[in-house]
Amino acid sequence: xxxxxxxxxxxxxxxxxxxxxxxxxxxxxxxxxxxxxxxxxxxxxxxxxxxxxxxxxxxxxxxxxxxxxxxxxxxxxxxxxxxxxxxxxxxxxxxxxxxxxxxxxxxxxxxxxxxxxxxxxxxxxxxxxxxxxxxxxxxxxxxxxxxxxxxxxxxxxxxxxxxxxxxxxxxxxxxxxxxxxxxxxxxxxxxxxxxxxxxxxxxxxxxxxxxxxxxxxxxxxxxxxxxxxxxxxxxxxxxxxxxxxxxxxxxxxxxxxxxxxxxxxxxxxxxxxxxxxxxxxxxxxxxxxxxxxxxxxxxxxxxxxxxxxxxxxxxxxxxxxxxxxxxxxxxxxxxxxxxxxxxxxxxxxxxxxxxxxxxxxxxxxxxxxxxxx
Length: 373
Description:
Elements: H1 2-26, E1 33-39, H2 55-70, E2 76-80, H3 90-99, E3 104-111, E4 121-126, H4 132-142, H5 151-154, H6 163-167, H7 177-194, E5 199-205, H8 208-211, E6 217-224, H9 228-235, H10 237-268, H11 273-279, E7 288-297, E8 314-319, E9 322-330, H12 333-346, E10 352-357, E11 360-362, H13 364-369
Parallel strand pairs: 1-2, 1-3, 3-6, 4-5
Antiparallel strand pairs: 4-6, 7-9, 7-10, 8-9, 10-11
């Protein structure tokens, strides 16, 4: 009798093990977070040559340093538009990102200006140029298409040197604008707070390399090669390492923020009595104000509910050259999560929670760590 009992136990164990193995093998693989790193210029396109430095080499060195560290993350896949000194068209760079089904596109460049005293970092998202300086930078970066064959056909007659061409450039990335700005904010904060670089802000301009990418995308101008001090810094190994580390931290902070919101949403979808009970409690952070960012753009829109899919209590704040639109305002983190659920239900699928302390924006993670126990 004991023999049969042992055989039954063994059979049951084997059946369970095999069943678990089959199920495990058929589970969908976890998708890695795909980051496309784009070193500006390359090959026959040297980029700007301020003070004799080569933008294409500096951009590539920074990109490779970022990629080396990102590749150490098990849940991140890194794709490069170039890893050597080769020429890649702007259209091809976007194609590489789209084919990779990327979660982020980060393009690195170095700036130039006629005024040699100009210095500092700035990060761009796609949009219409808002002033002459932004237009000049976009014109400079877009002029590389003249080195491409059949550029008139590829870019539909777009002329980088004609301001009229930019008037018709629509915001192709509107769906990803808020996320692009979030990443830009993280990168600029790293430059300013950690490296003490002069902050020239997050800006919008009509960059062709960003126009055709279908994911959150930014173009980082790491500094001015035409500035003697800054050019020397960017051309140095130490300077390139520091800039790479700052951009790396910005990417990781963005990824952590997006993952946080994704986790919150998946939990929120599980409607249960326990969730309802939790939502009725409070989680107050004194001195912190949480808001839900719905959108951002260059146009000032009236904060009436009919402009925001029926949501009441939307506020507008101008930050740099952009107007940002927020829903809700509270020190209660659970309350702002409820507001985020409400916004997503209304159609703002990509909205996210932001935090302020003394009217200055800080990361949500920093805000959550600040609570006095």
